Amino acid sequence: MSDAAARPDDIKAHLANVQQIAAIVGALRALAAAHQREARGHLAAVRAHGASLGAALSTALGAGGVWPEAGAAQGRLSILIGAAQGFCGSHADRLAEAARAEAAAGADLIVLGSRSCAALAEIRAPLWQAEMATHAAQVPELASRLADALFEALAARPGLRVRLVYIDPGAGGAGPALLTPSLWPLEPSRFPPARGPGPLLSLPLPELIADLIEEYVFSALCEALMLGFASENAARAEAMAGAQANIKRIAADLRAGWQRARQEQMTTELIELASGAAR
Fold this sequence. Notes:
Helix content is 62%, strand content 10%. By secondary structure, it is of the alpha/beta class. It has one domain (31-237): Pyruvate Kinase, Chain: A, domain 1. Strands 1, 2, 3, 4, 5 and 6 form a 6-stranded mixed beta sheet that branches. The protein is elongated, with a radius of gyration of 28 Å.
């Protein structure tokens, strides 16, 4: 009788543990969704900043500025906008696979995100690595440090070809997509010289264009980091939604099991009481 009597209590304790896990999963999902909204709210400003810099470059070129010549190719560098944490489904694995492909093709790596750094520990050490932003407000400061590391690498190898590797969370119903856009050298054709009266300048045109190019690269890094931050949290929200569905199923099974066990316990107790009364 003791084993039968304990079984409903064991199931009830298991159910309580499952409910605690459900609360944690629910909090993780809500936090990931909040981070997604936060990133979307900042993306418009980041893109507007990039567009204004592009227009400024076109204006400077239209005023007679000359686009700086790119050096001869001196290898490749890939910047992985990776994953900071787990619980995001296949997101981190997808990024790690893409980074391994870049490294296998001969590219040096810059890696962001401790989860991705750990996943890539078996290949050669990155040129630079850092923790990924955990809030959208941290992106500009991280982009600034990343830009410093990038331009330091470019100073040592001016002909370095650089591209980004990140996942765009998608918009308008489109799913997440792995993107590998070229970052450096910038294509001058993207900034056609603007016609019209020349701007009032306080810097020599070559210096102005160089500064605008650096700021444009910083803006491009901000956008990629913001999209990477959004995509990780979108993946986490989706993974937590799946976990919630599984937890609901497990909890329902446990409640049904508890009811059966409780009924069996009551039946056993009645039989034992009836047997004792008969004696």
